[in-house]
Amino acid sequence: MTGNYLLQGVTITTGEVRDVVIESGLIVDKASTGTSHEVMDCSGLVVLPGFVDLHTHLREPGFEQSETVASGSRSAAAGGYTAIHAMANTFPVADTAGVVEQVARLGEDAGLVFVQPIGAVTVGLKGEQLAELGAMAQSKARVRIFSDDGNCVHDPALMRRALEYVKAFDGVVAQHAQEPRLTVNAQMNEGALATKLGLGGWPKVAEEAIIARDLMLTELTGSRLHVCHVSTAGSVELIRQAKARGINVSAEVTPHHLLLTEDLASGYDPVYKVNPPLRSTADVEALREGLIDGTIDVIATDHAPHPKESKDTDWASAAFGMVGLETAYSVAQQVLIDSGKSNFERLGAVMSSNAAAISGLAQQGKYLSAGSAANLTLVDPKDSWDPKPQTLSMSENNPFTGLKMQGRVRHTIYNGQFSYRDLSIMQRAGS
Questions:
Q1: Which residues of 4-37 are buried (b: 16+ CB within 10 A; e: fewer)?
Q2: What is the pLDDT of residues 49-86, one digit of tens each?
Q3: Domain chopping of the chain, boundaries
Q4: pLDDT tens for residues 148-184?
Q5: pLDDT of 430 above 50
Q6: What CATH topology corresponds to 50-364?
């Protein structure tokens, strides 16, 4: 049952300190006479719109040894998320109305965050035939974003058809930009360090060539393109120029690409093996600049859990991917706030409202607007903490272990109910 709460002395994104009142799951201007509220002292906490992740791998159905919708929802709630988008590379692949509806139902059963499925662009993620895009869009899951993430839609004719098809329902094609013929046996960022370590180089042009092609196709079709996990300075510049020309493109960057560099591969620890790979310091700086100036729209985690045996092996045999739901806010604070280069309004945009707008999540409501759903994240900017390998995810491939992080999610409120409170997960929202 939804409670009534008075959040006293909370700081909003403009810096103003005020009280926030929640009644029956909604934000209200002031407490209703005769209504009983639980009063919470929120001094020192910043209230942000509930975070929205455009790129989460929940692994269910098919790979429940890595993650389930329920465990991923717990991890997301602990990270301040009130909505997450479940990627399609499951087994069976989320390329039909039936599978995306199954994932949505599992999210409803977990009850901690809104789980929005992403549909596959092609049948079986094989890049040969368009999946049932229209059926998924018209299903109860109401899919609006389609991606073969993990696989690039490398056939330009097929990519064009996908872009044209989704226009009918204002859909978005989210591309994993990787020219496969340029990344055969690639293991890490191409350069002197890869040569020194004897690992196959992953050229930046493999990403940039696909982005350049897809930007032209998007301009041709007048459709909507979203670029997943941008990782190079060249990619940022391509997107910046495209936006200046009026092309309808959005882009995301992951927390790990904002903070970590290729140098971490020196110890051959597979926890740092990821797709796309960690890049150079210059790339990291360009990504940060692009996030601050608006070229990059959102921070998306690309949360990619794996069982221990898939990472506890030699580098070449290890799986690509990192978990990131529970540490994303701290990275965002470091890049935007602690650096002095941006503010909490921008942080709220890149962690929440921009992603909600791209996906069309009307249920996220408007930040602190009277009558809107209470989807809120309260953070303590001064809390210093040490991430552990084992988070609330079922997997331990956490690349931030051992790093001192500043800023932490304290509470998460989903549809007026606490899903995460005082650093503890609620078994179900409102429990």
A1: bbbbeebbbbeeeeeebbbbebbbbeebeeeeee
A2: 999 999 999 999 999 999 999 999 999 999 999 999 99
A3: 5-46+370-425, 50-364
A4: 999 999 999 999 999 999 999 999 999 999 999 999 9
A5: no
A6: TIM Barrel (3.20.20)
pLDDT for the residue 2: 56
Encoding tokens for residue 235?
């990619």
pLDDT the model gives residue 169: 96
DSSP codes of every residue in 269-306: -GGG--SSPP--HHHHHHHHHHHHHTSS-EE---B---
pTM of the model: 0.97
DSSP 96: S
Residue tagged 């390329």 (tokens): 95
Residue 197: per-residue pLDDT: 98
Same fold, 5-46+370-425 and 50-364: no
Q: In this predicted structure, what is the pLDDT of residue 363? A: 64
CA–CA separation, 48 vs 377, rounded Å? 5
Non-local (6+) Cβ contacts of 320 within 8 A are 273, 274, 275, 304
Q: Which stretches within 153-277 are classed as H helix? A: 156-166, 192-197, 205-221, 233-244, 255-259
- What are the residue numbers of the active site? 302
Distance (Å) of CA 366 to CA 32, 48, 216, 357, 374: 21, 11, 33, 11, 9
From 264, 262, 270, select the one nearest 310 (Cα to Cα).
Answer: 270
Name the region of 243 (left: φ>0; alpha: ψ -120 to 50; beta: rest): alpha
Identify how many contiguous H helices and E strands the chain contains and give both numbers.
Answer: 13, 19
Q: What is the pLDDT of residues 209-238, one digit of tens each?
A: 999 999 999 999 999 999 999 999 999 999
371: tokens are 């009558």
Report the pLDDT value the prediction gives residue 1, as an integer from 0 to 100: 41
Q: Which residue is listed with tokens 């049932």?
A: 132
CATH code for the part of the protein at 5-46+370-425: 2.30.40.10
User: Which residues, in sequence order, are CB contacts of 210 under 8 Å at separation 6+?
Assistant: 152, 154, 175, 177, 178, 179
Residue 80 gets the label, from left (phi > 0), alpha (psi -120 to 50) or beta, of left
Q: Which two tokens stand for residue 137?
A: 């869009």
Secondary structure element (H or E) that encloses residue 104, with its range: helix 97-110
